[in-house]
């Protein structure tokens, strides 16, 4: 969330995993693809289409200030 985005992937055991790092390829007429996804330092195999994940973006500076203040 520090970078204004969050990627959540569902594991084979139905756990929700929050990615700490990933690459996103955006396309105009087909689904975006996420690759090089890391969770707790482990790289997940393969790539994930936008319909297979939860992806959030935000640009609220006031919310960013609130989140930052929680960790001071």
Task: Present the secondary structure layout.
Elements: E1 5-10, E2 16-18, E3 21-25, E4 33-39, E5 42-43, E6 48-49, E7 53-57, H1 61-70
Antiparallel strand pairs: 1-2, 1-7, 3-4, 4-5, 4-6
Q: What count of structural domains?
A: 1
The total count of helices amounts to 1
Extended strand count = 7
Order of helix and strand elements from N to C terminus: EEEEEEEH
- The fraction of residues assigned to DSSP E strands is 35-45%
Task: Give the % helix.
Answer: 10-25%
Quaternary organization: single chain
Quickly give the structural class: mainly beta
Rounded radius of gyration (Å): 14 Å
The averaged pLDDT comes out at 88
Instruction: Note the main sheet.
Output: 4 strands, antiparallel
Q: Label the overall shape.
A: globular
Poorly predicted runs: none
- Head-to-tail CA distance between termini: 16 Å
Organism: Tigheibacillus halophilus
Protein name: DUF4367 domain-containing protein
Structural commentary:
The radius of gyration is 14 Å and the shape is globular. The chain has 72 residues and is mainly beta. The chain is built from one helix and seven strands; from the N terminus they run βββββββα. The strands form two sheets. Strands 3, 4, 5 and 6 form a four-stranded antiparallel beta sheet that branches. Strands 2-1-7 form a three-stranded antiparallel beta sheet, with no helix packed on it. A hairpin with a 5-residue loop joins strand 1 and strand 2. It has one domain (5-70).
